[in-house]
Structures are given as C-alpha cells and as structure tokens.
Amino acid sequence: MEEATADSADDRSVSGFARWFLLSGNRHLVSLVVLSGIGAAFLAVGILDLATVTTPNRVMWYLNGTVNGLLTLVPITIGVNQIVLSHEFGSIQDLYERRTDITDFRERVEERTGTAVSSPHASTFFETLLSAVADAARTVQDRFDDSRADDRLTNDVEEVTESVIREAERTNDELAANGTSMLRTFLTMLNYRNSEQFHDVRRIRAELSDFDPEAAKELQQITELFVEVDAARQFLKTVVVERQLARLSRLLVYTGIPAVTIATIGIFSYRDIAGLTLSHALLVGVAGTIIVATLVPLAILGAYILRVATIAHQTAMYGPFIPESDD
C-alpha cells in the first residue's frame, strides 16, 4: 500500500517538456510557443484552403470581438493587483506581527539547525534546513547500528532514514546547481516530497517510544524539521505567486494596449488591404499576423495562470494527507 502511494506521488510530478511548459520555462517563451502554434495552424488552414480565413467580414467579426475581449483586461488587471496588494497592506500592528512572526520563525530554525544566523537567501536557507534533516537521520542510523533492537524494526529504521537522507541530499544538490533564484529555489522545493517520510518517521517513533525513548526523541527532531521545511516552503510559495501575479498584471498592460491598437487599426484598414492586388498567401499572412498579435495578452495570461495553477496543484499534496490521484 505504501509503495502504491509513493508511486502515485511520483506520477504526479511533471517532468520534461510538461514541466518546462507548466512551471520552469520562461513565460515569454511559453507564450511564444503558444502563439507560434496558433499562427502555424492559421497559415496552414488558410494556405491549404481548408477554410476561408481572409474574407473581410469574418476578419471584422473577429477583430470586433477581440477589442471587446481585450478591454476586459482592465478589470482582470485590477483584480490581479488587488490580490497582490491585499497581502501587502494592513495596519501597523498587522505588519509588525507579520514581521515578528518571520523573525521568530528564523530564530526557531536557527536553534534547530545549530546556525548562528540563517541566510537571507532562500536557496541557502533551505540547504541549511535539509542538511539538518539529513544529519538528524544519520544520527538515528548510527544509533541503530549499535542497537539490539529486533531485525524488523532495525531494517525499518534503516530504510526510512536512508530515504530521508537520499531525498534531502538530492534536493540540496539541485538547490546548489540552481543558484540563488527565488523562483528556481521554489520549483526545486516543489519536488522535495516528505509527506510519506513524515508519516513513516512518526510511525517508527510511536513504535520506539517505549523501547528506546532517546531514539524516539531524535526521530521527533526530524518531524519538527519537516514542519519547518513545509512552513518555509508555503511562505516561499506565497512570495513567488505574488511576484508572478504582479509581473502578470504589468505584462497585461504592456501587451494589452498594443493589441487593442493593432485590432483597431485592423478594423479600419483590413477591408482596404483585402481590396489590393495581393497573392492569397500574402493576404493569409497579413490576416494571421493581425490575429496572432491581438492574442499576445491572452497567451501571456494563459502562460502565467498555468504556472500559478500548477503550483497550487502540486503544493496541495503536502501536509497531513497524500492524494492518490489527480482529482
């Protein structure tokens, strides 16, 4: 049963092109891929005469609807900014308590990791936490190397602690390779899966509570570090998502105004362009360029929403419950 759960968790992690498209890829490049696909499909349909795509009435109908749709970017942008600013604003007491909570959290992590002053950089901060997790697991391993506990319990402890060490070291290696980028740090921590390990450590600790109280106490330290890792990861998620939404609102303005301008110019000039003596392929190209240009804000919006939604989906699996499906 445990193997099935672990396998299902692994199946939920996106990798390869899907991970690049949904999470790690530059959102501008992802938008470009989407727009290139739309443009290629439009050109193929138009040049191959699979549909009439250059008729002025059809292009006018599309551009009129596009202008109306692009104007809705204003309330969308305002709504996105409200989401971001709702967390930034507050009374002086609220801001003070928030800052105090962060300081208390840092001091608690410093105490549990044996660090004088924790790093202000997210990547180094998580490296310190994960190193402490691995060290605590090694301490339990060393204790059981000389223990006279029964073979089943010893093997169980060895298997769980080795899994904890391996996952922590793998994640630490990725953090070191990715540098200090806050987004890359968070995307790396998305793949750090400790929910199953948290359950296993608590189960073993319960079995050892009477047999070896000291070992149970050391296992308790691992679970406490897991809680700190999850809390830091959720806080970093909040920061990353806020930054992504703030960037999205800015890009919607940057691309929305030119898109409305292009659509408006197209409405007033496309009938005249279609009346010129142009080859069919060139006319398809002109119509396709106008259409793709007006879809840039939608592509940008889709690229960022995909990232934020995927982050929300993946972080939903961390905590007291482990989803066994994508429902």
For the record, what CATH class of one domain applies?
Answer: Mainly Alpha
Total E-strand runs: 0
Distance between the termini: 19 Å
CATH architecture of one domain: Up-down Bundle
CATH superfamily of one domain: Invertase/pectin methylesterase inhibitor family protein
Report the principal-axis shape. Answer: elongated
Q: SSE order, as H and E?
A: HHHHHHHHHHHHH
Q: What is the strand content?
A: under 5%
Poorly predicted regions: 1-12
The averaged pLDDT comes out at: 86
By DSSP (H or I, 4+ residues per run), the number of helices equals 13
- Summing up helix and strand content along with how strands pair, one would put the structural category as mainly alpha
The percentage helix is over 70%
Q: Biggest β-sheet: count, sense, barrel?
A: none
And the CATH topology of one domain? Answer: Butyryl-CoA Dehydrogenase, subunit A, domain 3
CA-atom Rg in angstroms: 27 Å
